[in-house]
Amino acid sequence: MRGDTRLLFGPLAALILVFGVIGLGWLVPGYDAARQTVSEIGEMASPMRWPFAALLWAIASCLLMFANGVWHAARTGGHSIVGVVCVVWMAVAVAALGWFAFPHPWHGIFGLSELIAYQAPLVFALAWRHEPRLRPMAAFSILMYVLLLASVAVNLSTLARDSLLWNTIRPFYGLVQRSLFVCFFAWVGGTGWMLWRQDSSRTLQVDSPRMQP
User: Fold this and answer.
1) How high is the mean pLDDT in each 10-residue block of the chain (213 residues)?
2) 3-state SS track over 24-89
3) 92 contacts 111 by C-beta, under 8 angstroms
């Protein structure tokens, strides 16, 4: 099957994130993934600051390639490209987080701005839901958006440090924060794969010789 390989940069971004975060976390002395945030792997004082920045820039590059492939698919199918803008914004935010290492003030600003990118699954679901062959992708996008909203709600408990919820999740906040990235990049990976499969099937149908009567 031949499809737009740019769409496969979505799953690639997810894989790089998972293995990169796990691998670099192991290389930071005393780092506790359950308790500490992902950003602390590459904080200013960390020996993994620049490897972590390189990891984020690689992920940002994959997201841009993925967004380019989705833009082409959206234009071909006559769909809105607003979701593509959300993915591009995530790429910009991720790249900036690599440069402005924690605890730089801009690190928190760009981290919070990822809320814009988290709207991508909803936008995609609304834009592509009327195309029968892509309804499974739309349903998947809705599911991931609901999970993202739940994760965002729990993560926002950091703004209320005296709340019961924050005191409950504080011992394993590292895992709670990771749920945001897991949900978003699971959506990126799954959407990229499904779009690539659909594009491959369409290409195969176009290339197949028609049977003569």
Assistant:
1) 87 98 96 96 96 98 97 88 94 97 94 94 90 88 96 90 88 95 97 90 47 32
2) HHHCCCCCCCCCCCHHHHHCCCCCCHHHHHHHHHHHHHHHHHHHHHHHHHHHHHCCCCHHHHHHHH
3) no
